[in-house]
Design a protein that fits this description.
The chain is built from twelve helices and twelve strands. The chain has 348 residues and is α/β, with parallel strands linked by helices. Bound molecules: D-mannose. D-mannose binds next to strand 4.
Length: 348
């Protein structure tokens, strides 16, 4: 596996030098953040990211994300120009040495939580999702914001989008995803880039908007839309694991055996009545079988990218919820340990 770590570019107070001090670090996971969704990234911005990471001795082989414009997800006639721009981004990134592009196909909102600073007994805080709290959230109010969301939407944009999505159920969304993939996957193949869709987080419909990358049946269907190795997955254990019906070890085993996992987001999550809480990565802190997940990867010879995912806020750190340095670094070390142990015992 190739260990990686999310770096939010030059604005991030967690620098590539800090990231490089985490043992076994291979690549940053980053993106160009100052270009509106749907536009082409300049070669200069891409090269700048790469050069900055290289100063710390790190590669820039994973992009998270090249976001997909809503017109593509909605299947509007204007989608073709956004798909053109997307293909151009793949070409430019491939040229710069990027090997894997993470993206998602969630309508309007990215990952969703109902509270970002839930305090645990040990004083750490983390992100949680409680269905009861969600009932009180008003997505159309325009004053809701989460760190993963596109903050450029105004109230009117959101209203319009919700109207437009009335015509898009999960079948339609699948069709629109297929249309997108049939265009971009051949380009990715030519450029030596693997596309890696991120599952929906949480993996169920939200605010009446459909979500389709949610479980085994849907992932199977997704992979068949374009049956190419370049059409693969970011398997996020915490996202899929938020639905207790998903057997995450089985999914990791199945899709890594098929060679369709290009990027792993490894984190734990604790299922509670009516929702879930993010925890430390450590197995006994949450509901997931972390050792089993890594064992499956090692058994199948997985050599793709891995990153620790959301961390708690600990030791008084403040910053982007889920993206502090300390707990993600602890997560990275735990992941290293699990891989070493699995390798050792499987080869013994
Ligand atoms: C959350 C992330 C997601 C992910 C996107 C991929 O922290 O895992 O925001 O980057 O869904 O497009």
């Amino acid at each position: 596996m190739k260990l990686s770590f999310r770096w939010y570019g030059e604005q991030d107070r967690i620098t590539p030098e800090m990231i490089a001090q985490i043992p076994n670090m291979y690549s940053v996971v980053t993106a160009v953040y100052d270009v509106p969704v749907g536009e082409v990234w300049s070669v200069e911005s891409i090269e700048r990211l790469k050069a900055r990471a290289a100063l710390a001795g790190l590669r820039t082989e994973v992009i998270e994300s090249v976001p997909v414009h809503e017109d593509i997800k909605l299947g509007l006639p204007t989608r073709d120009k956004y798909i053109e721009a997307y293909m151009e981004n793949i070409r430019r990134l491939g040229k710069a040495g990027v090997k894997c592009i993470c993206y998602n196909f969630m309508p309007v909102f990215d990952w969703t939580r109902t509270q970002l600073d839930k305090r645990a007994q040990d004083g750490s805080t983390s992100l949680v999702y409680y269905a009861k709290q969600l009932e009180h959230m008003q997505p159309l109010s325009g004053d809701m914001a989460l760190p993963g969301w596109d903050s450029s939407y105004q109230k009117e944009d959101l209203k319009r989008l919700f109207e437009q999505y009335k015509a898009v159920d999960s079948e339609k969304l699948f069709d629109n995803l297929g249309y997108f993939l049939r265009a971009v996957i051949p380009v990715a193949e030519q450029c030596g880039v693997n596309m890696a869709i991120h599952p929906d987080d949480p993996p169920w419909d939200i605010f009446g908007l459909p979500r389709i990358i949610t479980d085994e049946a849907h992932i199977d269907r997704f992979l068949k839309l374009v049956d190419s190795p370049a059409n693969g997955l970011t398997l996020c254990t915490g996202s899929l694991g938020a639905d207790g019906r998903n057997d995450v070890v089985k999914l990791v085993d199945k899709y890594s055996r098929m060679g369709r996992i290009h990027f792993m987001h490894i984190r734990n999550v604790k299922l509670v009545e009516g929702g879930f809480e993010e925890t430390a990565h450590e197995q006994r802190c949450g509901s997931l079988n972390m050792a089993g997940i890594v064992e499956a990867l090692v058994k199948n010879g997985f050599d793709g990218y891995v990153r620790p995912d959301h961390g708690r806020m600990i030791w008084g750190e403040t910053g982007k919820p889920g993206y502090g340095l300390y707990d993600r670094a602890l997560g990275a070390c735990y992941i290293n340990g699990l891989f070493d142990a699995a390798q050792h015992f499987l080869n013994a």
